[in-house]
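Researcher: Last one for today. Full complex below.
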Amino acid sequence: MPPADPLSRREFLRRAARAGLGVALAGGLSAISFDAAGPLGLPPEQAKAGLPDFSLPQTAGRIAIARGAERRETLSLALRALGGIESFVGRGDRVLIKVNAAFASPPILSATTHPDLVYELARLCFAAGAASVVVTDNPINDPASCFALSGIGPAARRAGASVVLPAESLFRPVSLEGGTLIRNWPVLTAPLTGVTRLIGVAPVKDHHRSGASMTLKNWYGLLGGRRNLFHQDVHRLIAELALLVRPTLVVLDGTTTMMTNGPTGGSLSDLRETRTLIAGTDPVAVDACGAELLGKRPEDLPFLGAAEKAGAGTTDFRRLSPREVSA
Amino acid sequence: MEAPCTAPTPARPLRRESFFAAAILLLLTLIAAAILREQRRPHPAVENFLYARASAAAARASASAVLLALPEGLVALTPPERFDRESLSDKIDGKAELYLAAGFVRLDCQRLSLAGAEDSWIEVFLYEMGSFENAFSVFSAQRRPDAAALELTEFAYAAENAFFFVHGTRYVELIASGAGEPFTQAMEAIGRSLIAERPAVRAALTERELFPGEGLVPESIRRIASDAFGLAGLDRVYSAHYRTGGGEATVFFTRRDGPDQAAALARSYLEMLRTFGAEVRPAEGWEGAFRVEVLDTFEVVFTRGEFFGGAREAPDPGVALELARRLEKRLAEAGHAPR
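Model: Here's the assembly. Have a good evening.
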């Protein structure tokens, strides 16, 4: 076997340069690929503190009550009474619409956000110049079935919006400052990344545990994990959600109200035509107003008082001088 | 003589070395591309409905197993699902508490669609409650007023878009995505198929006979499985609504293991009412019974043997007393001794 050729200086430098370039490339690729947030299961001190505040100071304390049977019409009326969709969504905004898609049930049962509202709201956001509109929820039942059978998915797509179905990778641990329940709890945060406007849209429903499910309870759909554990302390949880999530706007659909057997209902006889849609920037006030559709007072729903006490809004919605309009 | 100082010519790599080097470089490039693709994928927020459709299609494709023998004209839309006590809230959220408190064992459910009309579907819910009494509890707690009676079982009714009934130890809901004759026919067929496939002992609600007949609102009899009227420990309570000339009220009773237990429960109940500011005093002319005034309503409660019962939410004390007296008389007629 012939002896190996001795390495020349030039060859050494050339090989060293190649090796260095390789290491630099690998390092660069690693830097690009690095996931700074890391996987779930972070220690408590690394949990994300709260969520971004999407409320707009210039629209604070606005509330409108629109009466009519046709949702698209009452939504437009309510928004106009609030100053127009342009007051909330501008050119280039990236909008997230948080619906209530909790159950794989048909729209006629009013257990989920009505698809007509999803369509119209997304359409209006685009008309106001929104760059993107995303619709999401972490349903109770199988997400794909919920979005398909509730009609929310097709309605969102028809309006040009995207639908985000919850996957484990989209959740991050979040802690609410001063919260006792929302501590290092997985929250559906990924769809909120890059979003500039957050709108909640929910139906008015009776709820076996909390007494009512409206816009504040709707944020429950951002939680992951074994969230049913919270049912034992549901009023405090909803109050904490009211502090955690500061939306740009909420829309409460009381066109048809689920008066009994909520939150799932099941029978058309659980429903009453209440022909009211409430929109506003104070979710506590909006829910306090919506409670009347269920024949309840704010005092009957402890989560409203708790949310008010925590500083999330006011239950005295009349103090905000709601604009009332009819179709 | 010393050799001239010239740079040595590097050896050419073998063909095999070149081949392996190229293969490794190609592999590294592919790995890098895969990493880049995964990390530079559009933000999760742009996950779109295509995924939902794919998932739904996959679910439909796997819907071969069925919960029951399908009546003609129905096909499985989704696979059967099963939920236990741990997972029930994954299906019905906050309403799970109602079932769990009543002894829920498991839920089997499945969506069936009308053949050729995938948008027209019916979801079948079979709640195994462990006993007829438990099944009746959840049935009666959710009974819709003014519903049409059904002949499927002794305890069954129909709403515009749904059937609800008790069959043996099961509480059954059939909920349609719409209303109309095709749905009604399909739900009837499903109901009959379920009953035929799962024979059950015909249960009787013997407690119904203990309610006085006059003024009783039909179909208002309810079994409260636990925490009746807000009192922990007050369980297995039967209640019914009454309309009398003097006003409306609720009559209730519960049968305990013995007279002492009934008396202890009555004391706890009255104590709870006192904490709400109730005024409690002995009922005139009725030893052992109590008249209660609370929140502008009136109650009269008593114990008879192992029974604790009474009338509540009456607009005046006379109505409460009259209904409580009639209940006690009925218990006596049914052979339940005072002690």
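The longest helix of chain A spans residues 9-33. The longest strand of chain A covers residues 197-207.
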